[in-house]
Design a protein that fits this description.
single chain, 176 residues, alpha/beta, Rossmann fold, 6-stranded mixed sheet, 4-stranded antiparallel sheet, 3 helices, globular, binds xanthosine-5'-monophosphate, binds magnesium ion
Length: 176
């Protein structure tokens, strides 16, 4: 069990399952980008642990950079992009892999991809550790998905509840 502020969370996805799945995603990405030099664009803060574990398993020459977006407050999506802090690297003609922790309504990622596409990358693909298919509000192509999960609030392994709970190896779900 994990208690954060006023809420209780119970184990949901164990560390070894997460790591196994990341190994499988990395194998797919290694095959798809064998002769390329992709740039991983990591959406802060939630995706930082997933991105680090994934990045370590990529075998092609690969770069990494970070983008900050924020649309979530407490345990409900506001659907509003509060902030997008721009990239310092040029992405024109690059092979971009956007890395996200979780796709909920999909509004965040759809906005980010739209903004990145304005700079005309050669290709743009998306990797997300978690995906809540039932919550999706905007059609979105997800190229690499770790786990499809139910529409419940999760924390851990980078994901937070009001700033806390990111520093665990397992993922937890809000207890009902
Ligand atoms: P949207 O709705 O735009 O949201 O796809 C994506 C962002 O919302 C956050 N998010 C969560 N954070 N537990 C969290 O800790 C969740 O269950 C959850 N669902 C969405 C997350 O920051 C993601 O980037
Ligand atoms: Mg996030």
């Amino acid at each position: 069990m994990l208690t954060i502020h006023d809420k209780t969370f119970v184990p949901f996805i164990a560390a070894h399952e997460i790591q196994q799945r990341i190994t499988a995603l990395a194998a797919q990405i290694n095959a798809d980008y064998r002769d390329k030099q992709p740039l991983m664009v990591v959406i802060l803060n939630g995706a930082v642990l997933f991105a680090a574990d994934l990045f370590k398993q990529l075998t092609m020459p690969c770069e990494i950079t970070f983008l900050r977006v924020s649309s979530y407050q407490k345990t409900g999506s506001t659907g509003q992009l509060k902030q997008v802090l721009g990239l310092s690297e040029p992405i024109t003609d690059r092979d971009i892999i956007v890395v996200e922790d979780i796709v909920d309504t999909g509004l965040t990622l759809a906005d980010v991809c739209e903004q990145l596409r304005e700079s005309r990358p050669a290709t743009l693909k998306v990797a997300t550790l978690l995906f809540k298919p039932e919550a999706l509000k905007r059609p979105l192509d997800l190229d690499y998905v770790g786990f499809d999960i139910e529409n419940r609030f999760v924390v851990g392994y980078g994901l937070d509840y009001d700033g806390l709970g990111r520093n665990t190896q397992d993922i937890f779900v809000l207890s009902e």
